[in-house]
Each structure stands twice: as C-alpha cells, then as structure tokens.
Amino acid sequence: MGKKTSEKLLSRRRRQVRVRKQISGTAERPRLAIFRSSKHIYAQIIDDVLGVTLAAASTLDPEIVSSDSVKVDAARLVGELVAKRGISASVGKVVFDRSGYIYASGRVRALAEGARSGGLQF
Length: 122
Hints:
alpha+beta, globular, 122 residues, 4 strands
C-alpha cells in the first residue's frame, strides 16, 4: 500500500483478509464475491479450488446499463442477474464474500437480496 492510502481503505483490506482466511469457494459451494466502486458494482461466482469464474455480472452489463435506476436498484438487478447466470452454470448454493464492505450499506445488501430472490442460497 502506498503512503497515501486512506485509513478507510486499509480497514477494508484488513477485514477482507480476515474473512478470506476462513471462507473459500469450492465446487459444491463457490464464492459469491463482490466489488463496489463509487459508480458501479460487480459480482462474480468463483470456484477457488480450480481458480475459475463460473458466472459474473456488473452494472456495466447491457441488461442493466439500459435501465436508468438508482445505484441500490441497479445492485439488486446485478444480484438477480448473477443468480440467473449462476443457476444456468448449475450453481445453487454459494458462500457470500462481501469483500470487507459493510453489509448494512445499501448496495451490498441489495445485491445479496437480489441474488437470494434470483434463486441462490447462502
């Protein structure tokens, strides 16, 4: 980390490392990892044993970009889309990796609820 790295980012990295020590994605239960930037949100279903991404979705996908929506609503759509793509890749159960982001914040929670309503179990 550089000299100008903020304390907020360092705290998130510490939380991320602490969580990743305990959870990992397997073939039976891959990991649903998210990344949240200031404008977009990304979600991937990852099998850590093989090191492959099974499904992915983001707010940059054409299905979601076309809808003018609030960031929380777009995150819910990303969750539903990654769930649909995960189920088509024969994934039913996942381990949720919030990547150190606080769950109570709107977009992370909305993505998780969208994935649950799309059919993923975690």
